[in-house]
Design brief:
mainly alpha, 4 helices, 84% helix
Length: 116
C-alpha cells in the first residue's frame, strides 16, 4: 500500500510540479527535464513491478524457483500475467496503473533503504 501510494504521488505530483516550474521563464528548462522523467518513471516502474512480482513467483514455485533460472521463469510468468491483466478491456487501465505506481513506489523505497 505504501509503494502504491508513493508511486501514485509520483504519477500525479510530477505533472503538477512541471506546471508550477513552467510558469516562470527560469523554471522552463527545469520543467522540460522534469517532463522527461515522467515516461522514464513509467518504464522503470513497470520493470520494477515485473522484477518484484517475478521474484515473488519464483519463491513460490519450490525447488525449480531457486537460482537464476527460477528467477527468469518467475519474471517471464509475471510478465505474462501482467500482460494478460493489462489486456482486459475494462480493468486493463487499472492493472497498468497499479503496476506502474507500485513499481515506482518500490523503486523509491528501495533507494531510500539502501545505504550509500
Amino acid at each position: 500500500a505504501l509503494a502504491f501510494g508513493l508511486g501514485l504521488l509520483w504519477l500525479i505530483g510530477l505533472p503538477i510540479l512541471v506546471f508550477l516550474a513552467a510558469i516562470t521563464i527560469v523554471g522552463l528548462p527545469i520543467a522540460f527535464l522534469l517532463l522527461l522523467l515522467w515516461p522514464l518513471g513509467m518504464v522503470f516502474g513497470l520493470i520494477a513491478t515485473l522484477a518484484a512480482f517475478g521474484d515473488f513467483i519464483s519463491s513460490r514455485i519450490g525447488e525449480f524457483g531457486r537460482g537464476t533460472l527460477g528467477r527468469i521463469v518467475g519474471i517471464v510468468l509475471a510478465t505474462a500475467l501482467v500482460w494478460v491483466g493489462i489486456s482486459i478491456p475494462v480493468l486493463g487501465a487499472l492493472v497498468w496503473l497499479a503496476a506502474v505506481a507500485g513499481g515506482i513506489g518500490l523503486l523509491y523505497i528501495g533507494f531510500r533503504t539502501q545505504p550509500l
